[in-house]
What we know:
By secondary structure, this protein is α/β, with parallel strands linked by helices. The protein contains 16 helices and 18 strands. Strands 1, 2, 9, 10, 11, 12 and 18 form a seven-stranded mixed sheet that branches. Strands 7-6-14-15-16-13-17 form a seven-stranded mixed sheet. Strands 3-4 form a two-stranded antiparallel sheet. Helix 1 runs parallel beside helix 8, helix 2 (about 70-80) packs across helix 16 (about 455-470) and helix 13 (about 360-370) runs antiparallel to helix 14. The longest helix has 22 residues, at about 375-395.
Amino acid sequence: MRRYPLLIIGGGLSGLAAGIRFARFGQKVLILEKHVKAGGLNSYYHRRGRLFETGLHAITNYAPPADKHAPLNRLLRQLKIPRRTLKLRQQFSSEILFPERSSLCFSNDFSTLQSQVAENFPDSVQPFAAMIAALDAYDPFTPRPKISAREFVSSFLHDTLLVEMLFCPLMFYGSSDEDDMDISQFVIIFRAIYQEGFFRPQGTIKDLLGLLVTQYKNFGGELEFSTGVKEILTENDAIIGVRTASGEEIGCDYLISTAGYPETKRLFATPDTAAKFSTATEDKTSGRLSFTESIYLLDKPALKPITETRTIIFYNLSEQFTYHRPEKAVGLNSGVICFPENFEGGQNSDYIQLRVTHLANYDAWRHAYDADDKSLYAAMKKEWSERSKEVVCKIIGNYQKNIVYEDTFTPVTIERYTSRTQGAVYGSPEKIKDGRTNYENLYIAGTDQGYLGIVGSMLSGVTMVNHHILNKI
């Protein structure tokens, strides 16, 4: 039996970061990835000779080089990746758009949002400042019972429209809870989006993944693709290794799973070993929130000026923002409109990329996908894509005649390619903040550990190695 000091389930960003951090110290580590390439939720595919990204709109947590304690700069130091190699590009600006042209713009300069609040909600200036002070003083990584972020924010801000507008981007970009967030999650994502902001490295997600894989292998790390884990092996209340889908058993001293909390639980062969991992019920750990996303390639349409200055638009068609699984297949009342090339220093192109995201009902899509009539699923995608276009065109202008390529993925797509139960991108509402499980040598990293965003997910992997493993090797 092959044996490693550390095995990592999943070759996404969190798994790669954990592997790099461990391998840096000359330790033997193996990442097992069930797909043919790295990336997990943030990957890519090719159509008509062009690369299209999945998952990645923008990376949160931008920070200038001088801010040594910022999550982004701490991450790069931990991975020993020079910041200059990424050639970071900041967003132009983004916008929260509600009815009657109620609007708040924000950028990577937090004063932009502060001035927008002052202009549009003058009575909320002092309460907003008091809320920021309270958020800055809050440690989101201390394990504690869940606290409603809505109740916390509403204790400072009494203008309900402002509250709804602030929650809209934060929930779309990181909440696994319906209609609310744990205050810890709110603090993390508020800092990541509003106080730090959006950026992208130059190039595509393929380039970023290539950089990480190369760094990992340069440190001696091993990575096996098309190698899914079928079972986690235990002995005397400890993890001793895994059994792969091909039947090979691989031993380990420590195991990090980035597969997700409920997904990891299902890798135990018996009810007793699964119960040892966690006493939580499946209903409490499985997320319900998933999305449809349409990707468009446009041949330079004459859209409204808003598309030339905005990187992302978060819209909501009513004054109250609801964030839960819609009753119908797609929730068109709100969404995210992203121009993934609208970042500083972007390359000029003959085409514009557009990505549109909506909340979706997994059960409706699963029913269509499993139907005896195999044309039903494709017809359903076409129908809801057309409905989405009608809504989005009213916001950014008519782009339909300029579409040269389009593709739509659904919660079923996400589940099939990432193994996330019900396509729940942000995982379980129950986060394991310290990453520990009831097995002393098994740790959870990634989305279900509680860090948010791409930088957060990678820091999650690094943190599990730093806090729980390196000091024991």
